UniProtKB/TrEMBL annotation:
This is WAT1-related protein. Pfam families: EamA (PF00892). Residues 9-145, 179-318 form the EamA domain. It is found in: Membrane. Belongs to the drug/metabolite transporter (DMT) superfamily. Plant drug/metabolite exporter (P-DME) (TC 2.A.7.4) family. The chain crosses the membrane at residues 7-24, 36-57, 69-90, 102-123, 130-150, 178-197, 209-230, 236-262, 274-294, 300-320. One of its GO terms (cellular component) is membrane. It is a multi-pass membrane protein. One of its GO terms (molecular function) is transmembrane transporter activity. The lineage of its organism: Eukaryota, Viridiplantae, Streptophyta, Embryophyta, Tracheophyta. Keywords: Membrane, Transmembrane, Transmembrane helix. Signal peptide: none annotated. It comes from the Eukaryota.
């Protein structure tokens, strides 16, 4: 496989991993597990799983740890683990997987705007590729807004759901709708800042496995402090048995906080933070399909229309990003020609 397309493939596979996460964590929370305890245990598992890989595979390339770098890791852990994920999974208690996966797609637009503002993303509106990146970003955002604000008629299912899930009562949804929305929006903002900061940190600490391990351990410690405060009247919340709670913790720790976080860091270094976030809409589509076909959740026409709009925006943004790759290739070619003092045509 062409190595230029490896980041695309691993990001698509990563969104499949996130799709399963929505459902397994929702089942665990419905079973009674505290989301704060889940975040803490999940990153403890991830840290111990990633530690040997980071230690042995990056011992020759890992930069020396300084106090300033450690403080960057600490802030990254707040933005990407303890604060953001606690808000994220707390909002899942008040909303649904489809709603959250739809709102998370705004991260791509927020990240693009912040990246342009701080110079991490090149934007040339005189170039068709630059225009495509802007159009793609806002087209995807329009698709997200369509899925969120427009429902339309309910699509009929041609078969019975394979798994029946207990729906939330209407009263519960109405009374907690505002809280869940505020938590989700706050989560999207901090996540966008996290992606941007990753790109900056990786320039000084280009060791993705080690950075992943540091964020897992530091984030777990931060989350543990928060959990002690949030669950101070519920000491049994720390106890999990051999059930869905343990399965969700192991899956979240090994696959999501370990493997997928490393993949995101690798892709961020290769392609930039905007490239990573623009694959989030795929998870929304995967969640909607599974919710409808497997779990029997309601699927509205607005979700289908919004999904197509999101895909159009994704392709526009991908094409725009390919223009960056062509520019980088030309620049590298010219530098190589100048260093060899030969006449070249690019």
């Amino acid at each position: 496989m062409d190595k230029d397309f490896k980041p695309h493939l691993v990001m698509i596979l990563g969104q499949l991993g996130y799709t399963l996460l929505y459902f397994i964590t929702e089942a665990s929370f419905n079973h009674g597990m505290s989301p704060y305890v889940y975040v803490t245990y999940r990153h403890v598992v991830a840290g111990f799983v990633m530690l040997p890989f980071a230690y042995f595979l990056e011992r020759n390339v890992r930069p020396k740890l300084t106090f300033s770098l450690f403080m960057e890791f600490f802030v990254l852990s707040v933005l990407g683990v303890s604060l953001t994920l606690n808000m994220y999974f707390a909002s899942l208690k008040y909303t649904s997987p489809t709603f959250i996966s739809s709102m998370v797609n705004s991260i791509a637009s927020l990240t693009f705007i912040i990246a342009v503002a701080f110079g991490f993303e090149v934007l040339d509106l005189r170039n068709p590729h630059g225009i495509a990146k802007v159009l793609g970003t806002f087209t995807s955002l329009a698709g997200v807004m369509t899925m969120t604000l427009y429902k339309g008629p309910i699509m009929s299912n041609l078969w019975r759901p394979l798994i029946n899930i207990q729906p939330k009562s209407d009263n519960s949804v109405n009374t907690s709708e505002l809280k869940g929305s505020l938590l989700t929006v706050s989560c999207c903002v901090t996540w966008s800042i996290w992606f941007i900061m990753q790109a900056s940190t990786l320039k000084r600490y280009p060791a993705q496995l080690s950075l992943t391990t540091w964020m897992c351990f530091i984030g777990a410690a931060q989350s543990a402090v928060f959990t002690v405060i949030a669950e101070h009247n519920n000491h049994t919340a720390w106890i999990i048995g051999l059930n869905i709670d343990l399965c969700s913790t192991i899956y979240g720790g090994i696959v999501v906080s370990g493997l997928l976080m490393y993949i995101q860091l690798w892709c961020t270094e290769k392609k930039g933070p905007v490239f990573v976030t623009m694959f989030n809409p795929l998870s929304t589509i995967f969640v909607a399909i599974l919710s409808f076909s497997v779990f029997g959740e309601k699927l509205y026409l607005g979700s289908i229309i919004g999904s197509f709009i999101v895909i159009m925006g994704l392709y526009l943004l991908l094409w725009g990003k390919e223009g960056d790759r062509e520019v980088d290739f030309k620049i590298k070619g010219k530098l190589q020609c100048n260093s060899e003092k030969t006449e070249c045509r690019i």
